[in-house]
Design goal:
Elements: H1 2-17, E1 23-36, E2 45-46, E3 48-58, E4 65-80, E5 87-102, E6 107-127, E7 130-135, E8 142-152, E9 158-167, E10 180-191
Antiparallel strand pairs: 1-3, 1-10, 2-4, 3-4, 4-5, 5-6, 6-7, 6-8, 8-9, 9-10
Length: 192
């Protein structure tokens, strides 16, 4: 846990040091994550709502192509519609590096790699009026994937975007299961 907080702190320090050379901003919003992969049946799981929030830098913000690294806290997981209403809650620090391409005055498309560091993982279920929560160590500490989406940036400094996280590292350790973190994010941000 301490090493991940150190990584988060280092990332925030790096982004704050580039403010004079680029744009910096804050972004947050809602996540809709699920498990995906060939070993996941569409009937087993449904999207679980979570959230994300963090900071980003935008290098060459006035250029047609810009580079945007960021550091975000993100709650992912999945929901199961079984009798226990069971769910996986996975907390990560996401570090995306996005390439943005302007598509007109206010729109952009973006894509890039993302590395996610697991902070905490637990499985919950409802037993009557009680919720039982179990910590698990079976989730990998590192998740890698791709992020792509579309953004809207009016002149006011606000930005709105929709993105998809395509996890490429299996979620579980010591398992051959083809199960990945996959999900949509809707974000509202402000560039300073």
């Amino acid at each position: 846990m301490k090493k991940y907080l150190l990584i988060l702190g280092f990332g925030l320090l790096m982004i704050s040091n580039v403010q004079a050379q680029s744009g910096i901003g804050f972004r947050g919003g809602v996540n809709f994550f699920n498990f995906g992969g060939s070993d996941v049946s569409e009937n087993d799981y449904t999207n679980r709502a979570g959230f994300h929030a963090g900071i980003y830098a935008n290098f060459l913000p006035d250029s047609p192509v810009s580079l945007e690294p960021g550091v975000f806290y993100s709650v992912k997981g999945t929901q199961n519609n079984d009798a226990l209403n069971s769910r996986a809650i996975l907390n990560y620090v996401d570090v995306p590096v996005l390439l943005r391409l302007k598509a007109g005055d206010s729109f952009n498309i973006f894509a890039g790699p993302q590395v996610s560091f697991l902070l905490d993982s637990k499985f919950e279920g409802d037993f009557g009026s009680s919720t039982v929560s179990l910590q698990t160590s079976n989730v990998r500490d590192l998740d890698t994937g791709l992020v792509f989406g579309i953004g809207f940036n009016p002149a006011s400094g606000l930005n709105l975007q929709g993105s998809y996280d395509f996890g490429m590292t299996p979620v579980f350790k010591d398992s051959d299961a083809d199960v990945y973190n996959r999900g949509f994010k809707i974000s509202l941000g402000i560039s300073l």
